[in-house]
Amino acid sequence: MNALALLLVMELGDRFALMGVVLGVLLTAVAYTVYAERRIAAFIQNRTGPDRVGFDLIPQLKFLKGAIGLGQPLADVIKLLMKEDVVPENANKFVHALAPLISLFAALTTIAVVPYAKGVAIADVNIGILYILAITSLGVYGITLSGWASNSKYSLLGGLRSSAQMISYELSMGLAVVSVVVLTNALNMGEIVESQTSNPLNWNVCRNLLGFIIFTTAAFAETNRAPFDLPEAEQELVGGYHTEYSSMKFALFFLAEYANMIVACTVIVTLFLGGYQVPFWTDAPWFVQVGAFITKTLFMMFVFIWVRWTLPRFKYNQLMDLGWKFMLPLGLFNLLIVASTIVIFGNSLPLSILNLVLVALCVAGSFAAKPQSKMA
Amino acid sequence: MNSLAYQIIFYLFAAIIVGSAALVVISKNIIHSAFGLLFTFFGVAAIYVYLNADFIAVTQIVVYVGGILVLLLFGVMLTNKITQADLKTETLNPVPGLLITLSVLAMLLYTFYFRAKWVTVPVDQQLRGTVVEPIGIATMTTYVLPFEIVSIVLMVALLGAAYIARADRKVQTKEGK
Amino acid sequence: MIEAYLPIFAMIVIAIVLGVLLLTLGRLLGPKRSNSEKMSTYESGIEPVGTAKARISVKYYLVAMFFIIFDIEVIFMYPWAVNLREFGVSGLVSMITFALLLLVGYFYILKKGGLEWN
User: What is the per-residue pLDDT for A81?
Assistant: First the structure.
């Protein structure tokens, strides 16, 4: 194994630096996304949120005080590490420990093919987008197996619901991706970004608005976030699949969940929001591109958090109905429209115009409808 | 290119495949078997990558790991008797079994060393790029009729599933009961 | 081509090592004061009733079955999608035929109530 490690280092060299940076950023981002989520949730619900923990132990950082609670993530991590690892007596110990590992594995390996700037990605794979779909389908196992291994009714139901939900929404996600492939004519993540150019009108969110909405909704479902958070519906299933998890194993699920959310945001940005492209600045320097990429990702993360604390949770039959009776036909319909436009017109301009007109109509309609809704 | 690293990784995946496949066969707990199958499928996908068949590797994971294995797990969970029973067949025929195993092994080894025509291509002439595009062109031109027939087969499978769904409606049970 | 996958392999190894490391760290740092009450399965504070490995609804099985069929359909679409510009109308027509045949099956299961969750 030592020889293998040595060979890998020799072969990959500077890629390891990139991997280290990406993983470091991702893990820190997870910690602070949890913090941001709690602050935004508090803001939406008119509370204060975490505001006590600072870095007072380190003299140089004392100026940060506790007022905005920036030390909270660190304190949470330490707390989780120091907790006792309780495994229920009838649980299958091996699978119980392995399930969070699978979840984490799926969350961390997806990021490998996302390009952060032109030509900068951990792995430049020809079929990048298919790789992401493949790894996404692995994620089901962490949840199903944790539900089964815990030997608890809540866990089993949560795990089952979750896996059925995830596979249902994978279909509409796949269809949205196919429509993107039709538009960009590429499966490589870098090429998908390049074909969107630096003109925002060429970004897939303009050309394929419906696909963007379908993909984002499916991503909410795949990451088990509200309004699709039934697997861990606190009020009915206690904690869902992680009812019987504590200490570091729970932390791994938590980590995987938020890492999944961040990775889903980077994938949405890459597929629909032009990835690292800077608006109206072709071939920007790499650090500007990375900055654009991070800004867009942060925006998508805010949307994820915003939606979670705004929309109520679905009932299970509503969720399955939405997935199978609405999203799946809608995905096919969207693909039909995109493919026909490409075949008939040879380019995607009619789609952009159609989408812009639709958005303008919606905005105008919402302004026009305002007095009525107030009366009602 | 450091071919030794690739060889080591290849044998690593081969070991994962053989080990997990052994777990599938030997394990008495059927969920463990299903779990072993997960690693077998994953390892096979890695071998496909070694064969430059990236699309097949992805299909392997998406369809087998993401679909069929989930179906197997659900199927196992449908019947609680299976999950708790120790799986052990009462009929054991060690001598004929061993004989068959050895003869199959001998046949395989014979084919491997004497009969198989191995394709050896220099590194620079190997397949470059992805196989997705050639596959797409082939399905849409030469094999367009089989392609449409596939959809009929899938439709028939859907109809069969719907038939089972109808049978279920008569004895509808609440989830988890 | 295989070289492109080496970083992914490295990433897989790193993900596994990181996970195992974190689990071991948690196990080393956490206290171990277990008793039978603590180890029992959570069931809203009452004694656990029956087994948790109950039989599940056949609906889940059906969903997985429908998923596989449509998943294969979607998988077939990728090689078609990357070449669509070259195929033109004929490619579009053959894929619409393909999807329509599956849609017949879809409407059949819809009418038969295969997708009802109550």
Answer: 80
Three-class SS state of B174? coil
Confidence grade of residue C54 (pLDDT, cut at 50, 70, 90): low
Residues facing residue A347 across a β-bridge: none
Please give, rounded to a whole number of angstroms, the shortest distance from the CA of B90 to a CA of chain C: 26
State the pLDDT at residue A255. 87
Q: Which of B5, B55, B175 sits opposite A127 (nearest CB)?
A: B55
Domain total for chain B? 1
Quote the minimal CA–CA distance from A156 to chain B in Å. 9
Number of domains forming the structure of chain A: 1
- What pLDDT is stored for residue A1 in this prediction? 58
| ipTM rounded to 2 decimals | 0.88
Q: Is residue A146 part of a domain?
A: yes
Number of helices and strands in chain C (H, E) = 4, 0
Residue A220 lies in a domain: yes
Closest approach of B11 to chain C, Cα-based (Å): 13
Q: How many CA atoms lie within 13 A of A128 on its CB side?
A: 25
**Averaged pLDDT, C32-56:** 65
Three-state DSSP class for residue A75 = helix
Q: Which range of residues forms the domain containing residue B72?
A: 7-170
Which amino acid makes up residue A113?
A: V
Confidence of residue B176 (pLDDT cuts 50, 70, 90): very low
Indicate whether A375 pLDDT > 50. Answer: no
Query: Does residue B1 sit within a domain?
Result: no
Residue type, A126: N
What is residue A376's predicted lDDT score, i.e. its pLDDT? Answer: 43
CA distance A149 to A97: 9
- Is B123 a member of any domain? yes
pLDDT: is C117 or A163 the higher one? A163
Q: Does C107 touch chain B (CB under 8 A)?
A: no
| CB-based contact B132 C82, cutoff 8 Å | yes
**CATH number for the domain that contains residue B135:** 1.20.120.1200
Nearest CA in chain A to C54: A153
Kindly report the number of other CB atoms within 10 A of residue A51's CB atom.
17
Please report residues of A whose CB lies closer than 8 A to that of C66.
324
Q: Quick check: is A9 in a domain?
A: no
